[in-house]
Amino acid sequence: MNQTKRTGLVVLLLSTIFLLAIGTVQAQDSGSISGAVYLDVNGDGRCFNTGVTGEVPVQGVTIEFVSSDEATVVTLTTASDGTYGLAAAGQSYWRVTAKPDATKYVVTSQNPLYAPVYPENGLAQTGYNFCVSQGTNAVIILPESGAAASSSVAVWVTAVLGLSLIGVGIVLEAKRQQS
Q1: 170 and 127 in one domain?
Q2: Are both 141 and 100 inside the same structural domain?
Q3: Count of C-beta atoms within a 10 Å radius of residue 144
Q4: Are residues 25 and 35 in the same domain?
Q5: What percent of the chain lies above the pLDDT cut of 70?
Q6: At 71, which CATH number?
Q7: How many domains is the chain built from?
Q8: Could you tell me the CA-to-CA distances from 78 to 38, 61, 81, 82, 117 in Å, in that order?
Q9: End-to-end CA separation in angstroms for the chain
C-alpha cells in the first residue's frame, strides 16, 4: 500500500471518528429549565422567600418556552406546588414567559425571563421564578428589552472542520487513483 493511499484512509477514518464523536457529544448536551410561580400578595414584584404571609405557590399558570431561533415553542402548566420544569430543553437561549389567566392574575415580576442553556452557563438552569398578583392593584415591572439571539458557533466550526477533513480525504483518494 503506497503512502498516499494510507494517508487518505487515515484522514477519512479520523474524519469519520471525529464527526461521530461530536455528534454524540452534542446529542447528549441537552439542558433543563425550572422554576415556580408564587402569589404576590402586596404586588411589589417580590414573592419568593419574602416572609410575607400568603405568598404561596400558584397552580395552573401557563409557562411558555421559546428557543432563540423561535423554531421550538413548548407550553407547560405549573403543578400544585407552583413548580414547572422543561427537561431535555436542548442548547438555546430560551425565552421563558409566564402567561397566567388574565381574569385572575397579573404578572408583577420581570416577564419574560431568559435562560441561557449552554455548557458555559450550565445546562441546568434553575430558579426562574415568577410573581403573580390577584386583581389590578399590582405594581407591574416592565420586562427587559429583547435579548440578543445567539448562534451556536461550535456547531458551525465543527461542521466546517469535518467537511474540510472529508474533502482532504477525497482529494487524496483521487490523487491516489490517478497514479
Answers
A1: no
A2: yes
A3: 11
A4: no
A5: 70
A6: 2.60.40.10
A7: 2
A8: 10, 5, 8, 5, 20
A9: 13
Residues 157 and 144 both lie in one domain: no
3-state SS string over 109-124? CCCCEEEEEECCCECE
Measured CA to CA, the distance from residue 130 to residue 111 in angstroms comes to: 8
Shared domain check, 162 and 116? no
Residue 141 domain boundaries: 31-148
User: Is the pLDDT score of 146 beyond 70?
Assistant: no
Q: Which residue has the higher pLDDT, 177 or 62?
A: 62
Per-residue pLDDT band at 40 (split at 50, 70, 90): very high
Q: How many CB atoms lie within 10 A of CB 21?
A: 11
pLDDT recorded at residue 179: 73
Residues 97, 53 share a domain = yes
Q: What is the pTM of this model?
A: 0.60
* Cβ contact 85:33 at 8 Å: yes
The whole-number pLDDT of residue 177 equals 82
Are residues 108 and 60 located together in one domain of the fold?
yes
3-state secondary structure of 174: helix
pLDDT value at 110 more than 80: yes
Share of the chain above pLDDT 90, in %: 31
Judge if 4 and 83 occupy the same domain.
no
Residue among 27, 28, 48 nearest 38 (CA)? 48
